[in-house]
Amino acid sequence: MKPEYKKKSIRSYVVRAGRMTDSQRAAFEKYWPVYGLSLKDGPVNLDQVFARVAPRVLEIGFGMGDSLLQMLQQETDKDFVGIEVHPPGVGRLINNAGKHELSNLRVYLADAIDVMDDCIPVESFDRVQIYFPDPWHKKKHNKRRLIQADFVAKLRTYIKPGGILHLATDWEPYAEHMLEVMEAVSGFVNEAGVGQYSPRPDYRPVTKFEKRGARLGHGVWDLLYRKESSGD
């Protein structure tokens, strides 16, 4: 399987080939028909896809999917849509979800902006989460960072009024960049107060990398912003 995307001049990620394990390859054969969604299918009706009406969560860039798997198991009352461009991570997630017979997941192996443009109806999600996106450390690459004003403004249209945009990073300069972007974008209220970071909410699992970082004295910064409703 290869990620689906349209031609763009600037990307927030690099499409790495990455070797898939036998189990990950087998997962695409067995579980992609269950969990997979395609750009080519166009607009999606999530009530039909999940066969129920429930709170919905979108995760962009779920990596190898371990923390998303925990959330699927912990929050069975919610339906999750994951978007990722790296096939090994998608294969691992759908393999584990399939083994646990989880029904509250659908996945795009695609570019997130393309998915939003072509597939997702506006105001579809109660929560959008982006955890540990590539910080693009070098200054000349900062323009590639996913969290930019235009992207956040686009995200806002897919969040329900009163819904949450949750960002997290373990790179302090990126945390500062995120905070600056979010404080300047209209239509969101910082849950922790103006200019403040939030405590990690219970629903976000602590990753193994985060645990290792904590032992080394590294920090993690969470930002939670609520989309204003018309009455706010």
TrEMBL record:
Write out the pathway annotation from the protein's UniProt entry: tRNA modification; N(7)-methylguanine-tRNA biosynthesis
Enumerate the transmembrane spans: none
Matching entries from Pfam families are given as: Methyltransf_4
Q: What class of enzyme is it?
A: transferase
Binding residue positions for substrate: 138, 170, 207-210
GO molecular-function terms, A-Z: tRNA (guanine(46)-N7)-methyltransferase activity
The family database entries (Gene3D superfamilies) matched by this protein are listed as: Vaccinia Virus protein VP39
Task: Name the segments for region: Interaction with RNA.
Answer: 140-145
Q: Which GO terms describe its cellular component?
A: tRNA methyltransferase complex
The reactions it catalyses are: guanosine(46) in tRNA + S-adenosyl-L-methionine = N(7)-methylguanosine(46) in tRNA + S-adenosyl-L-homocysteine
E.C. number(s) listed in UniProt: 2.1.1.33
Annotated protein name in UniProt: tRNA (guanine-N(7)-)-methyltransferase
